[in-house]
Amino acid sequence: MSEGDSVGESIHGKPSVIAAFFTRIGQVYQTWLDKSTPFYAVRWASTLLLTAVYMIRVYILQGWYIVTYALGIYHLNLFIAFLSPKVDPSLLDEGKLTHNEGPSLPTKQNEEFRPFIRRLPEFKFWHSATKGIVIAMICTFFDAFNVPVFWPILVMYFIMLFCITMKRQIKHMIKYRYLPFTHGKRTYKGKEDTGKTFAS
User: Fold this and answer.
1) What is d(CA 40, CA 150) in angstroms, rounded to the nearest whole number?
2) pTM
3) How many CA atoms are closer than 13 Å to the CA of 86, on its beta-carbon side?
4) How do residues 116-151 score in pLDDT, each as one tens digit?
């Protein structure tokens, strides 16, 4: 088949060789993601290891502080979304949202228990955080991203931003009485089933 025939096939709706290759790569990537879903401990351990490698690389190279700062801000935003409920209770209080528009947290003592639904699920949090580290690592191979900056100022600004953001988030948790780390539905202990049966 000539090059012209290949181009002609892609024009008439048939996928080209390059498109088929990237489609196959995407399918393999998605398959590995699906397989890794239940192994959250392994996933997060590999991400922490990748983070350590990135930090060591930045320390040895003594540069790319702007990239590291942007990565920290990105991870902070992901973490806040991970801690936040899918439906913000403050929007219900302000009348901008109704209970019928989605699941919400119970706001009264006698309301039915509902599990905490995150704005950003754990798997998406991990996937986005890992992709951010990989992109930051790639940036360290290009001098264009090595902008000279006085890094202690960035560290102090990030710490201040982190404290302010977390303080606001904790106040939000206390005000609307929710914990982002509850698992499953509340269970109640009753009489234990011994498994014995009594003959009549």
Assistant:
1) 37
2) 0.72
3) 14
4) 788 899 999 999 999 999 999 999 999 999 999 899
